[in-house]
Predict the structure.
Amino acid sequence: MVAHVIPQPLSTLETRDRPVNQISEFKFSVPVSTHEPAGRSVKVSAKGVTVHYGDKQAIFPLNVEIADKSVTAFIGPSGCGKSTFLRCVNRMNDMIPSCRVGGQLFMDGANIYDKSVDPVRLRARVGMVFQKPNPFPKTIYENVAYGPRIHGLSRSRGELDEIVKTSLEKAGLFGEVKDRLHDSGTGLSGGQQQRLCIARAIAVNPEVILMDEPCSALDPIATAKIEELIDELRENYCIIIVTHSMQQAARVSQRTAFFHLGNLVEEGETTQIFTNPGDERTQNYIT
Amino acid sequence: MAITYGTGVPESKATSSEEFDRRLRRRRRSEFIFACLGLLATSVGLFALAILVIDLAMTGLQRLDVSFFTNYPSRRAGQAGILSAWVGSLLVTIVTGLVGVPLGVSAAIYLEEYAPTNWMTNIIEINVSNLAGVPSIVYGLLALGLFIYGFGTGRSILTAGLTLGLLILPIIIVATREALRAVPSSLREAAYGVGATQWQVTKDHVLPAAMPGVLTGVIIGISRALGETAPLVTIGALSFIAFLPPSPITLEFPFISFAWLFEGFTVLPIQAFNWVSRPGHDFQTNAAAAGLVLLAITLLLNGVAIYFRYRLRKRLQW
């Protein structure tokens, strides 16, 4: 009865409760999942993460555990906080003066928002690929070599050449650019530029790769190539991808998280989210 | 079915009314009037400048020969030259650039990239923009009090360079900040994303991308400094100098000398002013010739800047 009179507060309550339920459920299932053949361990976990932009709250207390060596897709309508949360994972939000992050965000059990954590060190472990391909206005070689060089990952020119080559190979770009490594990276096509950005990210040898709508500026063929690439990279990295395309989430991810108005509504196996969502809002969004 | 010929584009209901025709004629007319006004405004400026240059050239061109550049000023107009003036201008400009450019660019980088946005930085920003409009004589008075009486640097090239360096500082800061602000944030994010520190982001990516704009600011500043007279007169630039400052390169160890920094000097605009204020037609000719040289140097500097900007932009393909 009461629920019909004041539906608004109740729905908020429900929303806030849900992630807590989720987390207890997940904890419960952790020992089970280690027996699964996939055997995914938790790489990143959020405990009560909140984000404010000035007075506006962009993310309400959020709990989630993100599995290693798999692809997790963040879906949800525009402005739901999925990109904001993604940018917490490599502390890219630090750049925005009005942005405040609360709660705890763990990577391998250590809180990355702890005072002792240097965001530069963190970003060497958490690579990022952006919505619009943004190669440096330098040569293809320099684009990939920049990260390893500033982190001192190579002791000689030969080693650096090797890192550039393997990174480009992993990004499926080496064959297309091997004869013009010293041409400008911005002269490539959009899809090639995005794969260059992926090569640039993996050249630093990160553990986590964040992708913020990496295909939204690309045509279907380039998108298919990137998706294939993401599927290959999954074996070695923890990948989190924000996408507006439900089909893409279904194609590339093993787990999916649905965000709505700054809340994480639910998170689970992708097949389960898409075939049998637990929440009405998810149901409404995916259909 | 009736077929009509010769009407061209078929008219819709909205465009076939008489009201529309009347309005369209009026719209076209006001467009034409503005184009005429614009052309007039442009030609007034161009025409005035052209007359100025042609007049200068007609008076001064005959005086431009090698001896004009290699002679010191003289009581006899025919033998007077601008050797001490152009050397003075060159040296003062070098010092000005060495003072103004690093200070201005660093300050701009700090204000734009590092400083937190609060009321303090807002006040600084407004004041820096205002400083660009402060009359140059005020800089002269400041320099007289601070450098000459305060630090005792004398009526020297160093004092002049420091003064003009301060004068062009706000120009360079404003231009550099504009250029830094125009660098897309996606470039910064890309660099932060691979784990660059703020300084690495700035020096490896943002500053190179902003370089064409920075260069424009530097050239505007230097051109301004080249033409300045008032602050240099205030700090006591001489108008008649029949010697050159000591060479910066010497034969004895350590082969470099900074004695020239502390010498008296004159610059081209002061020399020209000195000649203009003298009686006699011949000296007017000299003044026009000196003016031509000044104009040529300014145009040359701008040309060099445009060339470098073009080269840099070509290298920076987005």
